[in-house]
Amino acid sequence: MLDLNVLLQIAWTSLATSTYYVLFAIAFALTLKVAQVWNFVQAGIMGIAFYAMFAAMRGWGWPHAAGFAFGLAIAVAASVASEVWGYRVLRRRRSPPLLLFIFAIVVAEFIAYALSLVFGTEPQSLTASMTAEIYLVGGVAISSWDLGALAWTALACGMLYAYLQFTRQGQFLHAVADNGELAELYGISANRAYLIAMAIAAALVSVGVYLYGTRASMIPNAPLELMLLAVIATILGGIGSVVGAGLAAVFLSLLQSASILVIPSQWQSSLIYLVLFIVILFFPRGFRLPAFLGGR
Amino acid sequence: MEYLYTVLILVGIYTILASSFNLIIGFGGLISIAHPIFFALAAYCSAILNMRMGVPIPLAIVAGTLFATAMSVMLSLPSLRVSGDYLLIASLGFQLGFVEVIKNIEFAGAASGLTGIESLYSGPLRSPAFAATVGLLAIAVVWLVHRLTHGEYGRAIQAMRDDEECFASLGRNAMAIKITIFAVGSGLAGLAGALYAHYFQFLSPEQFGITQSALILTMVVVGGMGTTAGPVVGALLLTALPQAITFLNLPVAVMAPLQGMLYTGLVLLFVFLRPAGLMARRARR
Q: What sign for the dihedral angle of Cα A249, A254, A257, A262?
């Protein structure tokens, strides 16, 4: 029997779970908007960030802040490397989109295999215990992890918004995203913009992976499947809209959690693939947001 | 000797898979990576028809192949409306989603896999007979792909791939060509799948995942996309090469990722050093 508390609990839990999906989605949408690449390398970057944090926190016993900073630094460096020695080279050669895609997906897989070789395929998490303090608010259980995740996600999104809207470099990213060739004529370096977008995406992904790793376990192959939700959110939110991708990620997380009410739990993970099909076939350009939310 | 026959059978099956994938991605320019799903559909269909309904194996193989073809048409009718990146993302979703679905279907063995599949041949000559059958079918598939892509129809395929708008403006139906090559390519992948099921006699969803997509893609890229001989060379090279690693007697936990790194590393090398593949120069002559 459904009651309001159950619905509120599902809504709250899916909102908290959506935090890392939001970060993955806006990272993916940002690189697609600025660099015009479906950056599946991001899955590899997620794996690198997670296992770097895992090695630092669980292996070497570093405090969480230091472990996070280490993972973030490694992830940013790897993302920048993929841009400089990968995408930039292929772009310079005017390689067809297929080759760019093959590069992206194969790098992600290569990293997953390398991580399997080094860390094995056993599920790993960033904390020894994944229990969190629980508060009951009007019959809804709210954990300290939920509150922390929402606060970190809000902070990361706020910083990204401020950077894109109020700094000169952020405006350069908009200019390159709109028309890279024209931006170059005005003296804006498109290559620098791509590099910054990749670095920001890696930073967002690192925060997301940290949140994920303190709540669930990770295996080297998991990032590619986690990425798929980011891809669907990016399409659903409207290509070119970073805000739209973030909102779509919240919606998808809510949909996936709420589906438990109508379909058996073992089919829950399949639902997201069904949504992907519907979105690609019927809404290939996504939904348009109002202009003040980043829509056009 | 049994081991050698198994390697030869794998080379034959992967030649069919890589050649049929090359028809779709190399000649047709349709960026889909869901090829292993049609391999899986026919494998499961053929095995289940034979195991649960008593359909004779040769008939089950034909039925499995036709089933994969029909499913590919059903998928392509809506999804080929979108192209390029969208088709690619749709195929990725289809690939991951289908594996997820198989994991939950009990009569197909679910996540633990389907065991007890009957072999096409039995007795002491099982493996040589199977190797000969697969070898002949692989040659037939390569010939069929070559015929399809090197006549008048082949020129139409290339024109459609190179400039679809221009092709359509000449009054030609690009969609019909796309659906045809997608269906033929997927059907041939289905044939490989049905043969696979009735030789190895075990199917599990993990065999048809994204790793399989990467392997087939590697064969096509390394051999040379859009060439007839390329996928054959790719299949031969990439089936034989990992066998060398197996002789190192490494633990499975080390060998599996090492093989994966070998495949993906090779693709990366070719993407940067020889993007047209090994057989590219020969194809241009």
A: negative
Say what the alpha-carbon torsion angle B57, B60, B66, B70 is, to the nearest 10 degrees: -150
Interatomic CA distance for residues B235 and B138, integer angstroms:
11
CB atoms within 10 A of CB B243: 13
Residues of A in contact with B255 (CB under 8 A): none
Q: Does A137 touch chain B (CB under 8 A)?
A: no
Is A285 within 8 Å of A270 (Cβ atoms)? no
Helix (H) or strand (E) holding B114: strand B114-115
CB-CB under 8 Å, B275 with A95: yes
Structure tokens at A235: 């399409």
Residues A214-264 pLDDT 10s:
999 999 989 988 888 888 888 888 878 899 999 999 998 998 888 888 888
- C-beta atoms of B271 and A99 within 8 A: yes
Helices (H), chain B: 2-22, 35-53, 57-79, 85-102, 126-150, 152-162, 164-169, 174-200, 210-223, 229-246, 252-273, 280-284
Please state the pTM of the whole predicted model: 0.84
What are the residues of chain B with a beta carbon less than 8 Å away from any beta carbon of chain A?
25, 29, 31, 33, 78-79, 81-82, 84-86, 88-90, 92-94, 96-97, 100-101, 104, 210-211, 214, 217, 221, 253-254, 256-258, 260-261, 264-265, 267-268, 271-272, 275
User: Rounded to a whole number, what is the distance in angstroms from the first to the last CA of chain A?
Assistant: 43
ipTM score of complex: 0.85
DSSP conformation class of A267:
G
Contact check, Cβ <8 Å, A102/B78 = no
- Model pLDDT for residues A157-197, shown as the tens digit of each residue: 999 999 999 999 999 999 999 998 899 999 999 999 999 99
Distance (Å, whole) CA A122 – CA A27 = 27
- B111–chain A nearest CA distance, Å: 12
Crossing angle of the two packed helices B2-22 and B126-150, in degrees rounded to 10? 20
Residue A135, chain B, CB below 8 Å: the answer is: no
